[in-house]
Amino acid sequence: MSEFSDCYLLRTSDVEDVRSLIARVGCQAAIIGQTGDYCAFLVESDDHGALVGKNTGCLFHYQYGEDHGLWLHGYEATTEAFALDYDSQQGFDQDIPQLLTEIMGFDILDAGSKEALSELVVHVHGSELMTAEEMRTALDLIFGCEFPRWRSARDFQNEGFEKELSDGLFISRTIEKPKVDEPPKLSPQQRLDQVLGEIPKRDVDPILYQQHKEYWQAGDYCDKRDKTGFMYSAYRKALPEQYRHHANLLVGGFGLPRQSEIDFYLGSKNEKIRERSNVTSNEEATLLLVRAFLGVCDPDFNFAPYLAREKGGW
Q1: Backbone phi, then psi, for 31, in 5-degree steps?
Q2: At what angle do helices 111-126 and 96-105 cross, to 10 degrees?
Q3: What distance in Å separates the CA atoms of residue 196 and residue 296, rounded to the nearest whole number?
Q4: What does the alpha-carbon distance between residue 144 and residue 278 come to, in Å, rounded to a whole number?
Q5: Which DSSP state fits 311?
């Protein structure tokens, strides 16, 4: 299994600064530990917008896909200062001078690190590509920290995660949410409805939507992982920052049944089994999500090479 990581790093030497940020958000979180001038931590995957909205310092959002690339976004308080998006097959998907200007303007690197970053970006852009692991190692040295390995919100679902915390691999246990009446756990259908409700409903070019619809309907279920890789990359690049994390649902899904399962439920003589068909199919949920994405995506983004599977992928 290839590595996937998704976590945050706050520039501070005091873990209490991280605790304070987490308390302001009121989310489930786990502090991984100090690394260089930063303190690394995890939060629930749905809390990105709230976390940035409550941030008052220098914050990194770091994501890593071993077979795909690396994303490092820096925030000064609630403002995104830079977005470093590296695709191990395509390189940097940004204007290089602008990217360097934004990172240098963040004022977190010394002169030597700035020079190393400039050489790295220019070399990769003009010469040969690096693997995601090679890029991460280079950024470890430049930013003077070690970006966490194999850490993401998925850890909260891992029974062994609490044991790791208690064994002292982390600075603190999972930070609990404030004592409030928690809402009932959402069903897969309710979760879908919630996400679609969070994304503004806007008109979508029917031709563009048809192209995406045909892409997702082509092939069989076994082809889903391969096809998802290409468009996951595209949507993450084209979506506004506050909706970008919803692209992860194309990978993890909602837990909804496939259409073939719904058809089976409908044909059952058992009433309780037939009731299971009163939900959106996984296939239809994907199309609803894609349509919502296209309504808020950058209108100038070129999806053509991703739809042709020439760009992106795992």
Answers
A1: -90, 120
A2: 160
A3: 12
A4: 53
A5: S
For the chain, how many helices (H) and strands (E)? 14, 7
Question: Measuring CA to CA, which residue among 175, 170, 120, 166 is closest to residue 143?
Answer: 120
CB 91 within 8 A of CB 125: yes
What one-character DSSP code corresponds to residue 256? P
Cβ atoms of 65 and 132 within 8 Å: the answer is: yes
Q: Give the tens place of pLDDT for each residue, 238-297.
A: 898 888 888 878 766 677 788 888 888 788 777 877 787 888 888 898 999 999 999 999
Range with the poorest average pLDDT among 47-51, 56-60, 158-162: 158-162
CB distance 216 to 287 below 8 Å: yes
Please count the other Cβ atoms lying within 10 Å of the Cβ belonging to residue 246: 21
CA–CA separation, 304 and 296 (whole Å): 17
112 contact partners, CB below 8 Å, separation of at least 6: none
pLDDT at 224 > cutoff 60: no
Computed over every residue of the chain, the mean pLDDT equals: 82
Q: For residue 200, how many C-alpha atoms fall within 13 Å in the half-sphere facing its CB?
A: 9
